Amino acid sequence: MIFGKDDPAPVLLEELEDGIGGFVIQEALLSDGAGYSVDGVGDVNGDGLDDLIVGAPLSEVMGASGAGRAYLVYGKEDGDPVALAEVELGIGGLVFTGEQADARAGWSVAGAGDLDGDGRGDLIIGAPHHSHDADASSGRAYAVFTGNL
């Protein structure tokens, strides 16, 4: 995550490791594909800071390989890294988990605007390999209303 700035000088991504100009979002599990998809979603939790959704479509969920995850990461003003393992514990965000092996939830993620008219931004999470009945990899998308999170 790179914070906005007035200076036109390039931002070196390695500087983000030190919290200079933004912060790094660290994977929860090795090879989980965290960051495969990322989007800004507006201020979901009402703290005045915009939040992010981060897809990790290769994550294992309760033994289901490749079920996938999507992380709602709350906005912040400091440069400390965000550990998605902590988000899984409810620290600094929320996690959404795929329903079945190889569903790849989090392959695509996006802010969806205010779908339900409650004044808060909602989310879309794609799971392109989710299987419905005998239809292998028929896919599924989830619209998440955030007002009750």
From TrEMBL:
Domain of life: Bacteria
Matches recorded under Pfam families: FG-GAP
Signal peptide: none
GO biological process, one term: cell adhesion
GO molecular function: hydrolase activity
Keyword terms: Glycoprotein, Hydrolase, Repeat, Signal
SMART domains: Int_alpha
InterPro entries tied to this protein: FG-GAP, Int_alpha_beta-p, Integrin_alpha, Integrin_alpha_N
Gene3D superfamilies, per the entry: Integrin alpha, N-terminal
Any one annotated GO CC term: integrin complex
PANTHER family assigned to the protein according to its UniProt record, in alphabetical order: GLYCOSYLPHOSPHATIDYLINOSITOL PHOSPHOLIPASE D, PHOSPHATIDYLINOSITOL-GLYCAN-SPECIFIC PHOSPHOLIPASE D
Protein name, as recorded: Integrins alpha chain
Gene source species: Plesiocystis pacifica SIR-1
Source taxonomy: Bacteria, Pseudomonadati, Myxococcota, Polyangia, Nannocystales
